[in-house]
Amino acid sequence: MFREVYYEIIKVFSQKKNYVVIGGHLLLLLLCYIAFKTSNTKYLPSDVRRMFVNFNAFFDGMFFARMAMIPTFMMIMPIFISTVAGDIVAGEIQDGSLKLYLARPRSRVRLILSKMIAIYAVTVIYCIYFAVICLVVGIICFGWPNESQLIYLRGMGIGNDISIMSLSDALSRYIMMTFYYSFSLMSLGSIVLFLSTIFDRMTSATVSGITIYFVCYIVERLPFTEKIAPYMLSRVMNYPDLYMTAIPIGRLTVNLATLSVYTLFFTMLSMIIFSLKDIK
Fold this sequence. Notes:
The protein has one domain (2-276). It is built from eleven helices and two strands; from the N terminus they run H-H-H-H-H-H-H-E-E-H-H-H-H. The protein has a two-stranded antiparallel ribbon. Helix 1 (2-13) packs across helix 7 (108-142), helix 7 (108-142) runs antiparallel to helix 8 and helix 8 packs parallel to helix 11. The chain has helices at residues 2-13, 20-39, 46-51, 61-88, 90-95, 97-101, 108-142, 167-198, 202-219, 233-237, 249-276, and strands spanning 148-152, 162-166. The two termini are 25 Å apart. It is mostly helical.
């Protein structure tokens, strides 16, 4: 199994298109840097500006990294994972390499499992990379983190959207968010992997996965979906509550359980569909 997973990871990193996301992320950081430098905190509500005599004193490298992490993991990574998972089966069917690989007797369940593990490994690597780059760019552009960290997440729908934490607490929450997202993205990855076993074109699987994510992202914000919103894909994937002063363990447990159900259910469906699929 280790050898199969290793080969799958190598295949992902050997495709140049998977590095486009790095360029897109660097562009995001550049635009965020320009925006923050030119905004002069005017983007903040007036009540927030009145709370702090000198808000800029809290604006350091860690603050920038936290703000840049939100669009990175909520927008860029779902698109990237949909691209990787959509290509990992349908892409090989499309170019004919999968049919040749299965010409000899091989376990299709084992193959799908190795691809799923490879998707997770790639997800963890990219999440760690993006988290580190956000922090490095923030420190270079805005200075070393202060001992007191302002946690500003207004508009994210959490309990305390403005709070003060120590640097060590803020850094530990930053790391927790990184690994939470790496796990949560696997729910979307498993859905797109399932779609990749259905379609014979990677674009069909990828676009379908991206559409599902962003439809959930839009619908969960509608006022009449409050009963189902906590269990929708995008809601359980994006969980800023880890930055709350006291992490709601109950909600976190429900989220992790829901993500696990999504991942296991669609991985099992992928195995079943792929085992019955006629590879052309």
